[in-house]
Amino acid sequence: MKAARILEYHKPLVLEDIPVPDIQADEVLIKVAACGMCRSDVLLIDGFFQGYGDIPPPVIPGHEITGTIEKVGSVVSKAAGLEEGDHVVVSPGWGDGVCKHCQVGNTHICPNVRWPGFGPYGGFAEYIPVPARYVIKVAKHLKFEELAPLTDAGLTPYRGLKKIRDAGGLGPDRVIGVFGIGGLGAYAVQYAKLLGAGGPVVALARNEEKLQVARRYGADHIIAVEGKSSEDVGKELKKATGQDKFDAIIDCSGATEMMQLAFSRLAIGGHYADVGFIGDRIDVPLFPRVHGEQTFHGSFWGNNADLMEVMALAAEGKIQHTIETISLEDINENIDLMRDNKIVGRAVVKF
């Protein structure tokens, strides 16, 4: 099969022909139809994750995976309802099944988790073996290139906003800020409208083209933050919504300066969910967080239940996409574009 692999960190991916992987008895072999390109792929190639754990090469990146079942393992239960030819998406976090997080369904934060695209097999290849319990059947009328990014870019902000909602942070009188309108932020705007109980949604970004995407997907207001102080942003926000701070923030960037801006604009009793990590350190005053009783939610990817809910929304036509399809041969060129923040929406490798 064709595959794009990391043979050495900080170097371009190498396109190679390698054997199609065997599957274990409890796995299925997926013929990859499409795989989304994520900022995390760039971070992986650039060695970011080596600071948190050893991922020895060769590595096949790509974790936003959809395709068809090519082969079903011998002990996969009939109750799973999986057959050759089924259209599926791959759930991102493969847990050990026995830890306290797996026991309540949060397999993606299992301490012994395996993630596709962060090891020997990933979506930048024509085939991938996947434990049968981590594939989800999807409606065949949905396009593969639109399904792929929903497994991360479309899943991650959904879980983050659910956390804010379930903590009581959303409501008709609560202003929601979506910081960073990239691959995740374009979906976050739509989820904020779906889950926000009528609260006004404000999109913030540096790039005007991306802000127009947010406007198209339902943002009530947009604010360009390039070159503006926190006070400038507060004035624009007050003019648009009647208040100069946000009751809820979903941060799809995680860039240091963007997080400092966002925290400075978080209201008393506000909720902040971060799902991005372009940066890796922040320096914010502690006292406003404490006396304002603010809540910070770390939110990482999503579990099977979250992904099934996203797939249901997609099947009902409630999610819109900004997609550019590319070939595997063009992968390195597009990684460079993503590294330079020049991709609007999501680039998707289509096989």
UniProtKB/TrEMBL annotation:
Superkingdom to which the source organism belongs: Bacteria
Concerning SMART domains, the annotation shows: PKS_ER
Q: Which InterPro entries did the record assign?
A: ADH-like_C, ADH-like_N, ADH_Zn_CS, ER, GroES-like_sf, NAD(P)-bd_dom_sf
Any idea where the Enoyl reductase (ER) domain is?
11-349
- The question of whether Zinc is a record keyword is answered with yes
Kindly report, in one word, the top-level EC class recorded for this enzyme.
oxidoreductase
Q: What Gene Ontology molecular-function terms does this entry list?
A: alcohol dehydrogenase (NAD+) activity; zinc ion binding
Q: Which residues lie in coiled coils?
A: none
> Where does the secretion signal sit in this chain?
none
Q: Which CDD domains match?
A: arabinose_DH_like
- Which PROSITE patterns does this chain map to? ADH_ZINC
Task: Tell me the keywords, alphabetical order.
Answer: Metal-binding, Oxidoreductase, Zinc
Required co-factor? Answer: Zn(2+)
* SUPFAM superfamilies per the UniProt record, alphabetical: GroES-like, NAD(P)-binding Rossmann-fold domains
Record-listed E.C. numbers: 1.1.1.1
One Pfam family in the UniProt entry: ADH_zinc_N
- Indicate the family of this protein: Belongs to the zinc-containing alcohol dehydrogenase family.
The record's annotation in PANTHER family points to:
ALCOHOL DEHYDROGENASE 1-RELATED, VACUOLAR PROTEIN SORTING-ASSOCIATED PROTEIN 11
Q: What is this protein called?
A: alcohol dehydrogenase
Q: Native species of this protein?
A: Sphingomonas sanxanigenens DSM 19645 = NX02
